[in-house]
Design a protein that fits this description.
The chain is an alpha+beta fold. It is built from four helices and ten strands; from the N terminus they run E-H-H-E-E-E-E-H-E-H-E-E-E-E. The strands form two sheets. It has a seven-stranded mixed β-sheet with strand order 1-2-3-5-6-9-7, sandwiched between helices.
Amino acid sequence: MNIRTALKRDYETIYELVKTAFETAQVSDGTEQDFVLRLRDSSAFLPELEFVAEENGLLIGHILLTRQPVLLSAGTLSAVLVAPLCVALPYRNQNVGGRLLGYAGEQAVKLGFTASFLVGNPDYYGRFGYRRVGDFGIQNQSGIPDQFVLGCELVPGAFRGVSGTLSEFAQ
């Protein structure tokens, strides 16, 4: 498996990959592929933080990280949103998602980001260090149930001395 930066020529395939992957996801609203398009068109988009996993020329996974604003009342934080992460059904449970998440996090750190947020299954993402944002002094006011709004330090100590509010996700 190879992980690389997504290219514009991949966009159509990524759209179909995301759509198909979320048809079999535990939680989905059916619009994740369109959310990718909105994020790419937003000021939060960082093309150097969109990655694909491929095997033998076939795209089998995708991850997109965008700038994530946090309204801070104390401390400093440079954060990204992970949305979405997906893996094609035949390649699930083979650590493709974990490798994409780890690689994308490493690249985000190289660009100066210190923390990551996402909306997802706490049992799955907990394996990678994600916990409820409230555990880090960040209030969730996004309207999404607290147990699904998760954060992770990309750099150890990133949330130390930080307090604030997460009221919306990068659009």
